UniProtKB/TrEMBL annotation:
TM region(s), chain numbering: none
Protein name per its UniProtKB record: Carbohydrate deacetylase
UniProt EC number: 3.5.1.-
UniProt keyword annotation of Magnesium present: yes
Amino acid sequence: MRVPPPPRGLIITADDFGLHEAINEAVEQAHRHGVLTAASLMVGAPASADAVKRARRLPTLRVGLHLVLADGVAVLSPDAIPDLVDAAGRFGDRMVRDGARFFLLPRVRRQLAAEIAAQFAAFRATGLELDHVNAHKHFHLHPTVLALLLAIGREFGLRAVRWPAAPKPPLPLQPWLWLMARRLDRARMLHNDRVYGIESSGAMDETALLAVLERLPGGLSEIYLHPASRCGITASMANYRHTDELAALLSPRVRAALDRLGVRRGGYRDFQPEWRGP
């Protein structure tokens, strides 16, 4: 049975919190002076300590775990997870190959479980309350990753997971999204009804954000962005317009559109029927 969603709710999230101080700076600015309500933290990223410091002085910012299992840095050492990372402790970006290995090789699954648990533990060590979990590049859509995330996450207070379903998902992804939604519902995990930002990743500027708000349906929606105070942060995001996304979150026109909608906003914890906090 599914956790009942609100009649209409909106979560506006910044991903990659902790990857770079320019991202952290944008998250703080967009929450203090704009419409950002949540952020997803990369616990093993270079600027994670700075992100945590900022989050502690932003008590109304809802922070979740951005699980990194591709194109990023692991928490465990390469000796502990040699089948997952290179000698520098980085995951690769061959997600199809890695997904097959997660499914087929027990030793790889054991290492995967250990790394997922380590990332949850690292988040707990921050002292921040866990608002939600999602995965870098939506890798939690993989059934093995999702199963481990749910099993391990319960030990760390997991109650909400992003469902990476765009309003019109590609046909090949639809069965996997359906399966994921069923598993989340069976696990009694709160999840969104749809997410915006996948098709415009790195390009959620003011125009794009206003277009989403103009057609915002009922149920719980999430919009995710990648704001930063400068561009060119990583090679994999070379074409991302980080500063335009920050400007959109700070836009008076966007705030006015939200005020007209009168939609309830927050993080996932703000939409849990039994989970209310400051």
